[in-house]
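Why should sequence recovery work at all? Because a backbone constrains its sequence more than one might expect. Tight turns favour small or flexible residues, buried strands favour hydrophobic ones, and helices have their own preferences. The token representation captures these environments compactly. In the example below, the structure is given first.
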């Protein structure tokens, strides 16, 4: 008989406390909570994401959101102030000790901030939440480092100039072997997650900023380095918690990158869902200067409680569905 029982009784009260704390954090800063649809007619075309498709009894198809990013940007283009949302999101192919195909994402947007300023606010949010319970872990500090500098100092390789073959050689030199072959961006991701991030101190926050342009489809290019884009990621130890951008506002750059992503998906044999035309229209109408970030709430709870598996903070992980 299948085990029907919920699986995270010890984390249940902590989750409720965290959700209340997140809302209090944004209320103090007068950031407006919003709610957007979970289901849409289009889907992201980022090759690193796979959307869950839904079909109505009558045959109409839609896609479950991988994040609330697209409709939240439509709100901003329509005149909304600083906004945030705590959303249920769905991603295909993401099941494991740190991944569940359905999870909780906190996403927020701040007008007139760049990605550096928003990254500092993410740190402030984490420290604030850690202070709300005497039993919760708190990070010991925070280090900021440019993505390129991290690759040069840790692996002695330039992440933009190196091709896939060179990155594979670096990976092999560091004991990493992946069958099936990867493209250049695939090797960069593998090196970050499997070689570099495990070296981060477990009690420290690390902010990586200014990613290669090919890995930041919705971030604006860096002014002085067009091969890089204004994206950051925040880690607690080796666990990625947040991914943010100084948001792209140029619709022509967006269309060029979208075509590139579609070509990659075709080459890899991935599904090709219809693009979200509403986002394109919102960019044409004018997205205000802003920075946005998505933070994994379940992963933050893992860090605060000091547990290593996502099913320890979920009542109903995929294994119990």
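From this structural description, the recovered sequence reads:
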């Amino acid at each position: 008989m299948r085990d029907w029982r919920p699986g995270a009784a010890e984390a249940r009260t902590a989750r409720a406390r965290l959700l209340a704390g997140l809302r209090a954090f944004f209320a103090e800063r007068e950031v407006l909570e919003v709610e957007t649809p979970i289901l849409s007619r289009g889907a992201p075309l980022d090759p690193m994401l796979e959307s869950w498709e839904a079909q109505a009894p009558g045959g109409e198809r839609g896609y479950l959101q991988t994040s609330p990013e697209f409709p939240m940007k439509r709100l901003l283009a329509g005149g909304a102030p600083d906004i945030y949302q705590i959303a249920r999101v769905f991603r295909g192919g993401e099941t494991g000790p740190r991944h569940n195909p359905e999870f909780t994402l906190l996403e927020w947007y701040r007008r007139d901030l760049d990605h550096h300023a928003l990254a500092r606010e993410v740190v402030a949010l984490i420290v604030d939440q850690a202070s709300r319970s005497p039993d919760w872990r708190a990070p010991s500090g925070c280090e900021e480092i440019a993505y390129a500098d991290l690759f040069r100092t840790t692996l002695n390789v330039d992440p933009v100039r190196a091709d896939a073959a060179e990155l594979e050689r670096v990976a092999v030199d560091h004991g990493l072997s992946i069958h099936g072959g990867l493209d250049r961006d695939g090797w960069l991701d593998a090196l970050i997650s499997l070689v570099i991030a495990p070296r981060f101190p477990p009690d420290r926050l690390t902010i990586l900023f200014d990613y290669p342009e090919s890995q930041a489809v919705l971030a604006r290019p860096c002014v002085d380095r067009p091969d890089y884009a204004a994206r950051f990621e925040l880690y607690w130890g080796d666990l990625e918690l947040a991914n943010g951008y100084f948001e792209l506002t140029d619709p022509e750059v967006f269309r060029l990158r979208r075509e590139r992503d579609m070509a990659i998906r075709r080459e890899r044999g991935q599904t090709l869902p219809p693009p979200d035309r509403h986002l394109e229209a919102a960019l044409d109408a004018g997205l205000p200067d802003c920075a946005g970030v998505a933070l994994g709430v379940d992963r933050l709870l893992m860090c605060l409680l000091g547990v290593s598996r996502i099913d320890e903070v979920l009542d109903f992980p995929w294994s119990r569905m």
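A few observations help interpret the result. The longest helix spans residues 9-28.
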